[in-house]
Amino acid sequence: MFQRLAALLLLSASFVMPTHAQQQQPQTDLARTQLSVGLYKIDVQIAQTPQQREIGLMFRKNMPQAEGMIFVFEQPATQCFWMRNTLLPLTAAFVADDGRIVNLVDMQPMTENSHCSEEPVRYVLEMNQGWFAKKNIKKGAKLGGELFSAAKR
User: Fold this and answer.
1) What pLDDT score was predicted for residue 149?
2) Are 137 and 66 in contact (CB under 8 A)?
3) Phi, psi (5° rounding) for residue 54?
4) pTM for this prediction
5) Is residue 77 pLDDT above 90, yes or no?
6) Which whole number is the average pLDDT over 75-102?
């Protein structure tokens, strides 16, 4: 009886372990789109389901400078982000439906500090920390792209 129980526990652990290991992997296979801001083009992954948004950029060890991730929510609301299991320092741009950057917030890796939008937004764009500052992109700048065209319809 004990041997059967031990075998069953071992077998069930083998099914649980791969799932946990998968959760430790960055998501790099999300749909992508192009955004623009001023003269700059950004290649972004789109996190649009609750699970994709929850994982976000967790576990990523690097990200090219002209890449980011845009989080798309069903409707505008005050959005708050943290950096649990996120290894890269990031800047979050909280973005209104028309593409206007409402506010920018630098976020430190591996923290649970809450960083929120100053007004209700549907989009949050995360880029490597310092990218917006180096390009002199500030609050009020407008992002362009299909996402923002679709929101107007």
Assistant:
1) 80
2) no
3) -65, -40
4) 0.84
5) yes
6) 97
